[in-house]
Amino acid sequence: MTILESKEIPVEDPIAAIELFMENGWTDGLPIVPPTPDGVRRMVGDRDPQEFIGYVPPMNGGATVEKLAINALMAGCKPEYLPVVIAGFKAMLTEKFNLKGVQSTTHMSTPGFVVNGPIARKLEINSKAGCLGSGFRANAAIGRALRLIMMNLGGGIPGETDKATFGHPGKYAYLFAENEEESPWEPFHTGRGFKAEESTITAFSCEPPHNINNHAESDPFLILYGVAGAMKGTGHNNFYVMGDTMVVLCPEHAASIAESGWKKRDVQYYLWETARQPLKELKYNGMYGSEYKKNFWPRWVDRENEESLAPIVRTPEDILVFVAGGHGRHSVFIPGWGTRAITEKIEV
Amino acid sequence: MTNPNGGFIVLNPTPDRFPGGGDLSPRLDILRGKTVAFLDNNKLQPLNKYFQRLGEMLIEREGVKKVRHHHKPFFTRPARQDILDPVAEHADAAVTGLGE
């Protein structure tokens, strides 16, 4: 029998367990599935429960497979979800992700996750209608598991170490899959050097999605002009600290754009060229106020000329383009916190 | 799992291990005559005078001998070791924070 090392806590019954976890602050505010030793063993499966994955900032709690499995079970995961949880967790631990900053910032951003590859279909991770909403177990449970790990192992406690002024609803769960079947372009992860038959999870610290409603146009310029318009809104971090930013096109918008011969690269270039703001607009509309020159703009932006246009991010490749969602002509813009999206292979 | 006493067993979801050397230093009894360091995250510098004013108050009101001001290169990123080492070497106590 698999030996588990976590402290056993006797309680009267499952309801008492739920209440105990509430009292101890070991949940996101919703009831958990009580992590019984048998349930955790099923979640761990053939893995070594004491395999060490990493320390989780800012509290720097040690994460073993056992601890990840406990939190995954609490979140409602099936055992077959655990490889996705582990890979998503590893993505957050990379230096460029800056999990310590993400966990403790006053900004509302939270890690959002996109799954690519065959595992998304196998686990029924929703990539279609309602994929950014409620109602789908794999999306909800895997996303919630990653949040519980951030809280219970990383100490990301709202109002304490998690200093977010508002937080956002994605802090309960923020995970969807790319709709590869209905995308006219190559899957996102193949653009990052993975094979189409491999599965990956991409972690990205970001705001909630902003809807872009365009039911009238089929011309790529006109569809994407509206997307760029949403991206040009000031106040989000990208114009000031760059990093990556994300656009998720719905299949109908993507199809219209692709029918005109546009590749994903064309979309990135058009958005990068169009989603710009003059420095005179950025000067008083963002995080630095009159200190607007303290930023990460490319060198070719003339800081002495207020008519100069700053791009939303440094390069077209920093605009991450996915295809997801169901019927209807709504795409979304998801501003970043100012850091990089990290893609990790899911080992199954 | 049912326990032998008829109850129910669950496992603690919080960590059992932390990085080595993570023990806290002994707390100071008094601040008088001590050196206190502030590690500023550099947000909105040079406009942000918060730590500077706190340092002045510690000298005026608590008899702190010296206040040292250190700065992170960029506010969202963890401080590098070469930033932290002088803080540990030259100060009896250090003040930092999360968020802002």
Description:
The complex is a heterodimer of chains A (348) and B (100). Chain A has 348 residues and is an alpha+beta fold. In chain A, 31% of the residues lie in helices and 17% in strands. Chain A has one domain. Chain B has 100 residues and is an alpha/beta fold. Chain B has a domain of 61 residues. Chain B contains 2 helices and 4 strands, in the order ββαβαβ. Chain B has a 3-stranded parallel beta sheet, sandwiched between helices. In chain B, helix 1 links the parallel strand 2 and strand 3. The radius of gyration of chain B is 20 Å and the shape is extended. The interface between A and B is large, with 52 and 25 residues.
Which helices and strands appear, and what pairs or packs with what?
The complex is a heterodimer of chains A (348) and B (100).
Chain A: E1 8-11, H1 14-23, H2 37-44, E2 52-56, E3 61-64, H3 65-75, H4 82-93, H5 99-104, E4 110-116, H6 118-122, H7 137-152, E5 175-177, E6 200-206, E7 210-213, H8 220-231, H9 238-241, E8 245-249, H10 251-259, H11 264-274, E9 276-278, H12 279-282, E10 309-311, E11 319-323, E12 330-334, E13 342-345
Helix pairs in contact in A: 2-3, 3-7, 4-7, 8-11
Chain B: E1 8-11, E2 35-40, H1 50-62, E3 66-71, H2 81-90, E4 93-95
Helix content of chain B: 10-25%
Quaternary organization: heterodimer
Sheet-strand content of chain A, in percent, reads 15-25%
**How does the helix and strand content of chain A classify structurally?**
alpha+beta
What level of helicity do the residues of chain A show? 25-40%
User: What ranges of chain A have pLDDT less than 50 throughout 5 or more consecutive residues?
Assistant: none
Question: Strand count, sense and closure of the main sheet of chain B?
Answer: 3 strands, parallel
Q: Largest chain interface and its two residue counts?
A: A-B, 52 and 25 residues
Number of domains of chain A: 1
Counted beta strands of chain B: 4
Strand order across the largest sheet of chain B = 3-2-4
The count of DSSP E runs of length 2 or more, i.e. the number of strands of chain A, is 13
How would you state the average pLDDT of chain B, rounded?
84
Q: What is the N-to-C succession of helices and strands of chain B? A: EEHEHE
